[in-house]
Amino acid sequence: MQRSNAALLCQAAFQTGNKMDPNLLSNALTPIANAVGQWQTAVFALGYPIFWMMAFIELAIVFALMIINRDLPGMINDLVRSVIGISVAYILF
């Protein structure tokens, strides 16, 4: 019968008597950090090109509306909003 990771951690914590192992948390988080590193690189590899494609589509729409409406002050306002929005999304991503 195979024991779960939680059962093994509990057994390791109480094996030394009443003292808790100082490396218990580190030992528990190391496999999680390794797993996150594996899928995070795959998600970012797909996410960055999609993000920049959507950013350029947004800017193209702003410029297209500027050409159609011939409204330079309104276009600059929309352009600033778009660039700020793209910047905030990039920082969060």
Any idea what the radius of gyration is? 25 Å
Written as H for each helix and E for each strand, in order along the chain, the element string is HHH
Structural class: mainly alpha
Helical segment count: 3
Report the uncertain regions.
none
Distance between the termini: 43 Å
Write down the overall geometry: rod-shaped
The averaged pLDDT comes out at: 79
Characterize the quaternary organization of these chains: single chain
Count the beta strands.
0
Give the amount of beta strand, in percent: under 5%
Instruction: Kindly give the count of domains.
Output: 1
Relative helix content = over 70%
Largest sheet: none
Structure write-up:
- The protein has 3 helices and no strands.
- The protein has 93 residues and is mainly alpha-helical.
- It has one domain.
- It is rod-shaped.
Question: Summed up, what is this model?
Answer:
It is built from three helices and no strands.
Characteristic terms for this protein:
single chain, 93 residues, mainly alpha, 3 helices, 0% strand
Helix and strand arrangement:
Layout: H1 5-15, H2 24-69, H3 72-92
